[in-house]
Every structure is written in structure tokens, then in C-alpha cells.
Amino acid sequence: MSGNNTSPQALYQQAKSYVQSKLLSGEWKPGDMIPSENRLVSDLSMSRMTVNRALRELAAEGVLTRIAGVGTFVATEKPQSNLLMIANIGDEIRQRGHHYRCEVISISREAASMAVAAAIGLPTGYSVFHVVCVHYEEDTAVQLEDRYVNPEMVPEFLNQTFNEALPPSLYLLKNVPVEEMEHIVDATLPSADEARLLAITEQTPCLVLMRRTWTSNKTVTYVRFLHPSSRYRLGSRMMVTAENRAG
Questions:
Q1: Burial class (CB in 10 A: 0-12, 13-18, 19+), 230
Q2: 179-212: per-residue pLDDT in tens?
Q3: 142-166: per-residue pLDDT in tens?
Q4: Rounded to an integer, what distance in angstroms lies between the CA atom of residue 55 and that of residue 19?
């Protein structure tokens, strides 16, 4: 492919199209390492700057994954969690044929901060249960769970041994009938501690799903699920009816 008499914009698009054609044909499959920038510069007869821009944009679009000092890989499809239901991440991962692991970072009883108390509907300083877990798909951290539980609703919570066979969410689903839930999704950057637990940088964009559940008009739990956006996504599919149709 020659770059003669072609604008830089067109060259950059041509480089992207070349990579995308390899993906569409199946020649480069998910997880494959693609040729180096130097090889692509030679094969396409383009400048290194043009090829680098094309690869950077494809990585930003989620088509490629770039690992410093290692190379550029065809991205694998990101798993997606359903926003319309209380999903068990362990079941989702196993259904994809992958190994699931849950690591409990901390579990304690503590005084609720003002923000946590407001979320659960309790007085500031009220004693609540707090558990922090990291969920892994294969050996990659895909979700950080930061959960607060109302002791009045789940008094035996701290007495459980939580692991991949019994993560906190599954225990709650089995023992507390949920009558109402709220999901709020936002974009954020991780704190230093969150980045360390997820093995990402503090500049990595993340999605945070905030969930509250109620039974008998009392809050059962308030939890933040933090997902690196490059590893996970949130979405839903539902039937459209006259009641939920919007313009």
C-alpha cells in the first residue's frame, strides 16, 4: 500500500482500514499479537507517526489492546453485565467457560460515615457491616466490590466465609428476599487503593455501578461495583411495550 499523493488524514484511515480488514477476514483473531509498528510501517509504506496514530485510535475504540514493552493484541470481547437484574458475577463468568475467583480483601463492622449512613438510611455513626472483594475472570481482576450491609436486616452476615463458592452477593440473594433495587452507573477514575487492587493505573477509566436494595421499605445493602472499562461493560436488553416506550 503506497502513501504517494495521499493526504495524511486518508493515510491514517487507510492504516485503520488495513487492520480492520485483517480482523474481519479472521486472519487476526481475538488475543493474537499483531505485527509490530515497524513491520506495519514497512508493509504499508507509511510513516511511523501515521501507523502509531491508527493503532492508538483502534486501541481507544476497544478494537486493539496495547501492552507497553510487549506488543499490540486483538482485543477480546468484553463481558457485559445486565443492568436490569441482580446478577451473580460468578455465574456469568462460569457460563463463558472461564475460571472465577473471589478474593476477600477485608470484612468488618464499623461506624457508618455520613455518606454511607445516608445511602442506607441510618444515623451517622450507626454500626454497619463492610466487605471489600475483588472478583477475577481467569487471572484478571474485572470487578472491585465495596459493600455495606444493614446489620438489622442480615445479622449473620459477618459469620460467613465468603469465597468463589459463596460470594457476598450470592449469600444475600439466598437469604434476603429483595423487593426493590436501584442501579446508578457513572464513569470515574479509580483511587490509588482501587487501582492497586484492580492492577490498573490511576488514569484508567472505570465504570462504577452503585446498587441499593430494599426489603419491607428498609435498605438491605449499599454497594459500589468498580469495573475497568477496558475489561467489562454494563448493558441491558428488554422488550419494548406501550408502558416503557419512549421517543
A1: middle
A2: 898 888 889 999 999 999 999 999 999 989 999 9
A3: 999 999 999 999 999 999 999 888 9
A4: 9
